[in-house]
What we know:
The structure is a homodimer.
Chain A: E1 8-9, H1 21-32, H2 36-43, H3 48-57, H4 60-70, H5 76-81, H6 84-93, H7 96-105, H8 108-115, H9 120-129, H10 132-142, H11 149-152, E2 159-161, H12 166-175, E3 187-191, E4 197-202, H13 203-208, E5 224-227, H14 232-242, E6 246-250, E7 256-261, H15 262-280, H16 292-318, H17 321-326, H18 329-357, H19 366-396, H20 399-429, H21 434-462
Parallel strand pairs in A: 2-3, 5-6
Antiparallel strand pairs in A: 3-4, 6-7
Amino acid sequence: MSEQTEPVPIELEDAAYVLGPKAISAILYAVDIEDQAKLTELMEPLHPADIADLLEQINAFDRSRLIRLYDREFDGEILSELDESIREEVIGVLTPQVLTQAVREMDSDDVVDLVEDLEDHQQETILDALEDVDRAAVQQALGYPEYSAGRLMQREVVMAPEHWTVGEAIDHLRATPEEELPDQFYHIVIVDPRLHPVGNVTLGKLMRSRRETKLMDLLEETFQIIPATQEESDVAYAFNQYHLISAPVVDEEGRLIGIITIDDAMAVLDEEHEEDILRLAGVGEGSLSDRVSETTKQRLPWLAVNLLTAIAASLVIAQFEAAIAQIVALAVLMPIVASMGGNAGTQSLTVAVRALATKDLTGANVWRVIRREVLVGAINGLIFAVVIGIVGVIWFGSPALGFVIAIAMVINMIVAGLAGTAIPVILDRIGIDPALASGAFVTTVTDVVGFFAFLGIAVMVLL
Amino acid sequence: MSEQTEPVPIELEDAAYVLGPKAISAILYAVDIEDQAKLTELMEPLHPADIADLLEQINAFDRSRLIRLYDREFDGEILSELDESIREEVIGVLTPQVLTQAVREMDSDDVVDLVEDLEDHQQETILDALEDVDRAAVQQALGYPEYSAGRLMQREVVMAPEHWTVGEAIDHLRATPEEELPDQFYHIVIVDPRLHPVGNVTLGKLMRSRRETKLMDLLEETFQIIPATQEESDVAYAFNQYHLISAPVVDEEGRLIGIITIDDAMAVLDEEHEEDILRLAGVGEGSLSDRVSETTKQRLPWLAVNLLTAIAASLVIAQFEAAIAQIVALAVLMPIVASMGGNAGTQSLTVAVRALATKDLTGANVWRVIRREVLVGAINGLIFAVVIGIVGVIWFGSPALGFVIAIAMVINMIVAGLAGTAIPVILDRIGIDPALASGAFVTTVTDVVGFFAFLGIAVMVLL
């Protein structure tokens, strides 16, 4: 970690970011012929994050051979960049010496991130590898709830009392031994005598100010204090909303105990989004590195819920068997109404789920948003009612059938707008993640209403 | 912008981040009774990002009254935080003096972000409000393609030649007038005589090192150069992947022309995710502040595509009218197979779209991923085939019917896994955003295959 890597200019093509297939082939070839020198040479220009990506993309057999051959070059940062699904496997392959060395190089917040999802015996192995001070820090962090600010923060903080001047702060910084400072830092946190943070001073301001200037005269305008028990998703939201670069973390008594920097907040934001997207699609935690059995299990619950939904819709259809037996065209056309409602409902619910996540949908505008979605549903419903009505008339030569499907379409699209907005809002209010559960409810509603409206009106009008 | 706002501790509840309904009511009441002093007092503790959220959540009538009453207090940063959909409206309400003042306070990159989506006459008004130097900077940035690094960067950069020492850099920083420096900066970019960036030095290292130390001895390990024409989504990816805090931007000749900081990259990451989620759900650009007509228009194309898909599925059903007329149970059960396939396909495609976006799905593992998804589809297909087969037998008392639906289920789930992965990969290869178009294709496939397999096998087995 002490060498300066070559500055790698980013090319206009995607290619520069990712390991191209050629680079991966070359690396795997070096592994095949067990050429350790060649492997080290090929891996040398790669950032640990890229090496982690490489390990995720190759299969388990190549992965273990590569790690064994790479051996002592294995950097701690690779471990923290690695997808959770293969961390345990990789740690299992590393020799104890390499693991110890790798873990000792890591920042305490990265070690926390690494060990929190490991099984007990691996967790112990890693904690044992740490020096006493670091182990204590990691164990303290593990005392905070999962996904909390306390797990996310790093303990090394640069702080200064309120009465200090610029000169005193700079002298103190110079006198502090390297290992007590964070790897990177951008602010000095000013604290009162009880260690409560009162403000931030950027290093840029510090450097440009006269030695006798009071730190308190240089405070940044935007300053946010984060309680250690705060959920990490709210931390990421605050960083993004207020353009924070770093923020102090405090314990229950409001005392400074650590700091969170924006790069970690950005990683959390990324994970939260990933989670939202996957949950909306009914894919639990999914990752490409998961085993087939793992993935099958993750997707099963949502499919099971969908099966119940589909059976509920079928029960509705079953009520109209007699009508369908008389007019088979009903069976041909009925999926159209349900499908359009399902799609319109998904549109509304996705907008609502996002707006809830970004705190743009609140008590202040919920009724206006619901009215708006219903109106959008009604207008699009009318437009597609006309289209499908005409299709129905032309296809089956029955104006009455065209009329029936048109009316059913309008009804289902209005219901889709209403359910697509109201269901996520209600789930959010009662504390259920709307990204996770809305889809099943909304589709059930649009399926049931779609089939019932179409077949019900058909019975009234056509029979 | 010169006052220090009170440090606002973040509460454990969501409430502290957002404007509670109470705060909004109080503000709207002050607007109702036209109490300017009260309004200013209530708005004072709010961050510009929160004021922007407030303006987005109230209706257009309240919005214009609030802005008129708030008047001179209106900060430029509110404009840059505002959702695009209501920016033009808000700018139209501001008096020319307030607008000029607000725009002059903004950083050049924020002005670019503001004007790029405005109509021509409003764009001119704002450019006219700027001082000459700033106007030139904004116009230069507008010369770069939309969504490129050139639009995202700020022009103010702190740089130093390779031969400088720490002492020379610090003296230079102190001698530079405030207005030529960026608002916040965390690195000094080291450049060669042709202005090509060669490395970054953090302010923390600079401050802790001896005056005679060479800057070149303090370079950071991770260093990325970003071409001005780079797409902003790739910029955000690089920041997140390599934990960059700031990165220099260069022109076609590789000369340093600006810098991008992580807070802007984080905002881009957030927007990209938003776009992906909304596109996956077939909601173009959607925002809650859009007008009904706007929203209706945005959602229409996807619904139109879905209508075609649904009609295609109906055409398949129409081929089996005779069979349905004989066995109405087929009409009752057929949506189940299509629906399960649609959901399984959506699961696979969402995982694939995400993995493509994060560059985790590449040429190196695409075949393995497809095999895996097909296998997952087959296993879940078998599980649900047994379940639905039993349901079919019990419900309709026909083992043959149970067998038919079970076989159709397995086939459609396997096809779903295959189509759900292969379609996004193919779209990505031919340069179409997989988030935008995959859904329609995958659902068409699972609908058509679902109905065809179920009804086709039914004809063979039951008739």
